[in-house]
Amino acid sequence: MGFLHRSGVCALALAAGAAGLQFEPAFLRDMAVEAPGYRVSVGALRAPLWSAAFAQSADSFTLDNVEVSIGTARFQAKTVEFSGVTTPRAEIEALFSTATTDPLATRLSRIDATKVTIPDLKVQQNVGGRSETATYKNVVLSNIRQGRIAEAVAGATGAEIGDSQDRMVVSYGRLSLSDLDAPAFARLYEVKEAAPGPLTKIYGAFSIENLDFVDGKSGTRGRIAHLGGRDFMARGTRDSWAGTLAILTELADREKPTEAEQKRLLTTTADFLTAFDIGQIEATDIEFKARPEGRKGEAVSTIRRMAYASAKNGAPADARVEGMEVRQDDGRIGIETIAFTGFSFASTFETLKNLGDKPLKDLDASTLRGLAPTLGTMRIAGIHIDVPGTTTKTNGFDRVKASLKSFEVTAGEPLNAIPTTLSVGLNNFAMDLPERSTDEGIRTLTDMGYRALDLSMGLAARWKEDTQELALQDVSVQGQDMGRIALTGTLSEVGRDVFNPDTALATVALIGARAKELRLTVENGGLFDRYLAQAAKEQKTSPEALRRTYAAGAAMVVPTVLGSSPQAKTLSQAISRFIAKPGRLTVTARAKDPSGLGIADLVAASDPSSVVERLDIAASAE
User: Fold this and answer.
1) Which of 365, 364, 466 is nearest to 420 (CA)?
2) pLDDT digit string (tens) for 60-90?
3) Rounded CA gap, 483 and 582, in Å?
4) 417-426 burial, b for 16+ CB within 10 Å, e for fewer?
């Protein structure tokens, strides 16, 4: 009995001791640290008695009622649990001490822990006059060394943006973040940088799964299956991020800002937008559902992929939307690709930042040119339209069916914000023609037997600084079962002043340009034959008889207009042969003067024959 009694007492003592060691008394209470740009307050710091027994370290501890304010953002957590802490206890207590003036970034860099757990994290901020409140559940920060977090994960998130009159509710599943440099992030909000420094990596990669939102005002619903990115880079701003966001929030709410406030808003915005970049971001399987006001049915928009990649290692910046489709009732519009490559807003932002004290209304042409971004290449491909038409007596469209293979614009190598290379291409714009239309243009085409259009157009030009020439590489229009018209040429004595911001100087320089060569190519693909057949029918004659009449007329009209020179005769004969047997007509005109024919001379010429005499004209019909 004595043995059993002693054993029971020992077991009770062990249980009591274990419970005592797990008890977490509060060692510090009501701590607060405040400095320009941020404030940190903690209700209590608690640690187990087992850890408290060691004066030099605390392997684990808990913070109660934590609140951190950085700029316009406020973070709140009822409990924050630290475990696997290797930071000396004195430094942990110094994190919340008012006796030191160390910035928040320095304090965060002292934290070494295996894991930090936050069951509930609430984030509130005000951006552009709109309040945002988000709650993150089961937040876990892992492997923290000198404040750098190897991985941060939140199990689920819910957020509300706006007020009761205009509110959006957002929720999403698992959120993960890797390689988060918390001290560097805090430094953005604390430090004012008089001169822009290099961008520093703030975190490596992030991903968000199953993001859903509902707009309370319009009822629009949306979903993104996956959102991810990597390499978020940032630097400080002139007023620090905290100061910059405060300025933007204040000035954005002004109904009638003064000119000085407008300029400050522009320069501050430019400074902030150049203070960060992200290496890559991508969203997949996007869907929006909305009910357009005043219309029946629901509009559903889907996007297979949206992505952005910044310029890096010689590769240009790229932004694109892929697999976009909009459906409503029995209508559909689809676009396979919208892409922007090689664009840059660097000159725009740099010009805004350097406006100085000059009033906005007094900005000169050079400054305004500097605001223009570099366009790069825009490409839209795979457009398909099949929607109900608005039928009228004129257009006859009871349904619109159209498609576009591609449309591409490239504007590169800008000089004073004007591209020195330009390329525009529109390929295979196709559309069914309504048979009942009374529109004159559509009626003309349908009368010639066309039931659909398939058109392509091109434009390409390049300025060569070394030779002071502007090469017109392609100006063309082509239609399926119609034909093709193309023009190429070269202008000489086109100097840099053509791109001068002073429009008067640019105009004078352009007038001083000289035309060296122009080549016109006309290819018949069926339009000329259909026109002759339709015209012959209206004139009650045969197409061959009408063809002979037109050919003979060209042989007489051209010399009458251009004179009786050998050049005019060569041109008239080629046109007559083309009309008689339409295939390909090529006309090349070269200035006899090696320097070219002056644009001013062409404009001032009162008689076309005087211009023809100064040209060598070659023409052929195949």
Assistant:
1) 466
2) 888 899 998 877 788 999 999 999 998 887 7
3) 10
4) bbbbbbbbbb
